[in-house]
Amino acid sequence: MTIRRGKIGDMLSSGEVVLTVSGRKTTPFPDLRFGSLRKTQNTEHRVERWLMDNAVIEAEAHKDDFNLIQFRANQRKPSQADKDSAEMYLFDLDI
Questions:
Q1: How far from chain centre, in Å, is Cα 45?
Q2: CA distance 51 to 32
Q3: Total tally of structural domains belonging to the chain
Q4: Model pTM?
Q5: 39 φ/ψ angles, rounded to the nearest 5 degrees
Q6: Which listed residue, 9, 19, 49, 68, has the most CB atoms within 10 A of its CB?
Q7: What is the pLDDT of residue 73?
Q8: CB contact at 8 A, 67 and 36
């Protein structure tokens, strides 16, 4: 199975692993469940957690303390700006 490079705004499937801009593999993308409002909200939280956790792992791998502090500080309840920053950090080739 070929692992593709992740992109900003990408649609990922449950269990999918993609490559970050540095070539690292992400953890598997969480399960997506939308059968009820509660399941949808839980899915959103799992996806946010996946994004922030992978940004923390990437920053640790790069010994990037500046971004690591930001990602860790906002890991539990990230704002939209935090999520956008994490996504750019993981997948934007221009950074």
A1: 12
A2: 14
A3: 1
A4: 0.93
A5: -65, -40
A6: 68
A7: 96
A8: no
